[in-house]
Amino acid sequence: MPEPADSAEPPARADAPVILGDVPGSFPRSVLAERHPALIRKVRDAFPYGPDRQRALDALLKNSAEGVLEPLDAGAADRERWEVWGGSEHFGRSWFDVPFLWSESYFYRRLLDAVGYFVPGPWQGVDPFRPFKLAELDTPEAEAELVALDELAERPAADREEALLLGSLWGNRADLGFRLGAGGDGTATDSPLVVDEGEALRSLFAGGTLCLVADNSGRELIPDLLLIDHLLSGRRVERAVLHVKPYPYYVSDATTADVVDALRRLTAATGAAGASGHRLWSAMTDGRLTVRAHPFSCAPLPYADMPDDLRREFAGADVTIMKGDLNYRRLVGDRHYPATTPFAGTTAYFPGPVAALRTLKSDVVVGLDPRTETALVADRDQRWRTGGTHALIQVRR
Ligand SMILES: O=P(O)(O)OC[C@@]1(O)O[C@H](CO)[C@@H](O)[C@@H]1O
Q1: Assembly ipTM
Q2: Which Pfam families match (predicted)?
Q3: Which of 42, 246, 267, 385 makes a 20 to 30 Å CA pair with 157?
Q4: Domain extents for the chain?
């Protein structure tokens, strides 16, 4: 088992400015000013909420555009948690003036309030994003991806592993929040990875424990589960822990209910996909695959601030895979780093080997070779950072 790394903040982290939402024309500002109102409209259209919920959605729309951040209601079970997570510092300020990670995360928490997710009543526990997540599982594209597994099953295990790893990586493009905005530029193809440390990652599959910190449900979670099945059934890992969100978040982020939906989708399939689904189901029932929904998974903070119990959990893993853009921002810190800042420095605090599998959908990136950065900028100015057209695999042992 690796020794816990030094938790002191590396200089790179402390020096780079935190990303805020206040710069006109910036990506964060477009998320707060355009994606969030679009999301409210979408959720409103998807459910016949009554007048009280409609009014609450109107209030959120207005507050998030021109108001200030306000504490959660007195009765909210997590009111104090949000104070500790930074609320006491940020409440009373504009949504645009606090760290982007903070205001964006708080928006999702407030959206759940507006739709009555946490309070007793007819809408308690009803995931406002569920219709979109379910629709994803039912597309011809999702079907084609499952059918393709039959052919993959014929290939040598090492090839299968590489394909499944890339499937899990590119599955991260399946992000419903991202599709609400100007994000994808429609030219997304599987371009060469801007950093490819896939081999280093695979060398860490040595029969121990894998933590996979999931991102989106549907067409990202299915390939994540297929990768886990491959690793468990080939004894590449002995045990896998899948971290999901304790409540709906960032539109399509996976919750336990989404894991069950994905497993049902797989077990209902024929051929290799169905077989995988049944193996995963058994792995969950016999404890080789466990699902965790830690409250910190929805925290508006970088993982450098993780609580001790979660730190111990990651310290006990032989490798932790962080999926997706948001987890990347939280892993390295949501800051304006020079793109060539070493990944190892920004993740030195992490208590064990850690890997990022991410398509690039926000400004943050570290660990690029200077030539790669120059070529990317020459080709598409800074759009490569946010367009979802590029991806990376980075590892810190
Ligand atoms: O974590 P994911 O699903 O890969 O991407 C989430 C994300 O791209 O969506 C937001 C915009 O809607 C970004 O701020 C955020 O990082």
Answers
A1: 0.95
A2: ARMT1-like_dom
A3: 267
A4: 11-128, 138-396
Query: Which atom of ligand 1 is nearest the CA belonging to 327?
Result: 1
Contacts of 121 (CB under 8 A, 6+ apart): none
Extract long-range pairs of 4-10: CB within 8 Å, 24+ residues apart.
4/311, 4/315, 4/351, 4/352, 5/348, 5/349, 5/350, 5/351, 5/352, 6/348, 6/349, 7/304, 7/349, 7/351, 8/348, 8/349, 9/304, 9/349, 10/345, 10/346, 10/348, 10/349
If one counts every other C-beta atom within 10 angstroms of the C-beta of residue 14, the result is: 10
Q: Is the pTM of this model over 0.90?
A: yes
Strand 209-213 with 195-196, pairing: unpaired
The reported pLDDT for the residue numbered 187 is 40
CB 229 within 8 A of CB 146: no
215 lines ligand 1 (CB under 6 A): yes
pLDDT for 344 beyond 90 = yes
User: What is the pLDDT averaged over residues 300-316?
Assistant: 98
Token pair of 149, please? 């597994």
- Per-residue pLDDT of 100-120, as tens digits, reads 999 999 999 999 999 999 999
On whether the 138-396 domain is CATH 2.60.450.10, my answer is no
Alpha-carbon radius of gyration of the chain: 20
CA-closest residue to ligand 1 atom 5? 325
Residues 6+ apart with CB under 8 A from 149: 226, 271, 272, 273, 276
If you measure from the C-alpha of residue 326 to the centroid of ligand 1, how many angstroms do you get, rounded to a whole number?
5
Tell me the CA–centroid distance for residue 203 and ligand 1, in Å. Answer: 29
Which of 78, 324, 293 has the alpha carbon at shortest distance from 215? Answer: 324
Q: Atom 2, ligand 1: which residue's CA is nearest?
A: 325
Please state, in angstroms and rounded to a whole number, the distance separating the CA atoms of residues 297 and 374: 34
